[in-house]
Amino acid sequence: MPQRGLTADPAWVYSQLLRLYPQASSAPLCVAFSGGEDSTALLAMLAQLPQARARLRAVHIDHGLHPDSRAWARVSRATCRALRVPFATRRLELTRSRGQSLEAVARGARYAALAAALRPGEVLLTAHHLEDQLETVLLQLLRGAGLPGLAAMPAVMQFGAVVLVRPLLAVPRAALRAWVQARGLTCVADPSNTDDRFDRNFLRHQVLPAIVGRWPGAARTVARSARHVAEAQELLDEVARGDVARAADGAALSVAALRALPLPRRRNALRYWLGQAVPDARRLAEIAETLLAARMDANPVVGWGQLQVQRHAGRLLLTRKRSAAPAYELTWHLDRSPRLTLPAGAGRLELVHSAHGLIDATALPAQVTVRSRHGGERLRPRLGGPSRTLKSLLQNEEIALIERQNLPLLYAGDHLVAAGDLWVDARWQSGAATPKRMTVVWHRPA
Predict the structure, then answer these.
(1) pTM given for the model
(2) Statement to judge: residues 336 and 432 lie in one domain
(3) Are 137 and 277 contained in the same domain?
(4) 290 and 409: one domain?
(5) Do residue 298 and residue 334 come from a single domain?
(6) Which of 48, 42, 22 is nearest to 30 (CA)?
(7) Over the stretch 272-291, which tens digit does the pLDDT of each residue have?
(8) From 355's CA, which of 57, 75, 132, 416 has a CA 20 to 30 Å away?
């Protein structure tokens, strides 16, 4: 490992890359190249090595946040030309919702753009260094992060099909700057890096100088602590893997199995199951406690962003939020067409003549009304039986939530005839002497 004050060394950096990810010895390599000192140092070091240069290229992400960003892309291209490294650039158009951090939006968009720009089998390399790790730990600590956050940036990680390696995490920023300056390499100076309105910049310029002035080895000792935290997280992940495997019910988790776990272990299992989709601590607590403790006939939901965890039929499911289907009411002229396309993507209905159909076709009027659910609907599913709420019928049959939301209802006047193709009210059911029978077919949405 480079010692304090030692100049960065290309051969050491390459050996560190292979130690972290042995497949990098033959895989194509792509440096996330901002044009700044750190990424210039990484790219130039690898470009010096014949065993790496033939497989090396750079991708520059232009965030479009500064008037000079196109000029920075041109400087980056010129640097790559001088190093004889292939260069590509991607320009972003960032939009953020109210309350979103610009830093977070830019970071997410940047990694998405890098992932999209990679070729099959290509390894993504970033130039994060020792002080970046210190800043990350402190920021996560100030945000109240758990162990995954305090473990800071892993040297190797995978998101989707992308493998990302950070071979410079043990190298000080000063060593990279000295290496670049000694070779007279041109670098981009992004003025936003000096803007203390951003949390990381404020920490870097206002806080860390005082910390390092008092504790010169702070970056290395905090990085060591982060490694200890990462090891502890690995042990928790191992426990969670077993708990999730025992609770697994297809892609869902068994509510009963989760409730049998002590609360800390339950939260740990849920974090592991949710992975990159894990919500903030408050919503995770809602899932682990309130949602799991709800009565058995309830179907509570906890949502965040575009995702939600639903409890249904004794299982937890992670789904994307769907916009609530708008209410509708249609007139269906049965004498004109046996088919009806439903609005809001709810599928289509068809009335089919059938010798075994449950509906007495002679009792139906020439036109019926088709409505979405409003709540409070009742029907009598069998002759002589009690009237039941549609809600209780759906719960007892454990009909999926999405199917409940889209379920079309057929009415003759104010009387409910059928709930999709699930139930027919006894008043409209065919009997042994019924001459003409029909069946409702609901072609559900994909």
Answers:
(1) 0.68
(2) yes
(3) no
(4) no
(5) no
(6) 42
(7) 999 878 888 889 999 999 99
(8) 416
